[in-house]
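Quick note —
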Amino acid sequence: MDRESVSLDQQRWDALWSRLGAQGTDHSIFRHLVASYSESSRVYHTAEHLLDCLAQLDLTRALAQRPDEVEVGLWFHDVVYLPGASDNEEQSAQLAQTALAASSVPQETSRRVAALVLATRHLTMPPEPDAQLLCDIDLSIMGRDPETFDRFERRIRGEYAWVPEPVYRSSRAEVLSGFLRRRSIYLTAHFRDRYEVPARQNLHRLIARLGSESSTA
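Predicted structure written out below.
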């Protein structure tokens, strides 16, 4: 799917924003989201990724305790994305909390959404069910068919095109190995049942390829 053919749904956004209790009809937040996910530096973390995440949520919405908060967390989870930066999630969480608060969304909701966005750092396995669901949605790409997974990996490499090949292979293999060291990549039964086995197969295959390419470089 070409970037030009992907567009975010303003009606869906407006309905979500209203359900959260946001006041006013200012569309500047939506326009900011559209502009962010269209940045030229992005190859994978684009509107296409966000739409894929929303589609996964639509299939699992009944699993969420606060589904609208999970959804808005998805909209904001990659709104700030600079390849290689260590604080993308922190900045995205802060932007989400600020936008929600400025639109008179209850403070408790704003704080919970910011925490959901922070969970997508994937540094720990969050105990909160909604954070688990959001993280699983974000990582669901790892368990897709090999062709889709390989396209995902090529796009990630595209976002790090400035990193020398040997450095990328080594660091990427280490990141992916961290997921394999988990007892389970996915935290909810739905995603474990659907994606755990193919995700591990995809990761083992890619890590082996990264090591093979490194040894012949």
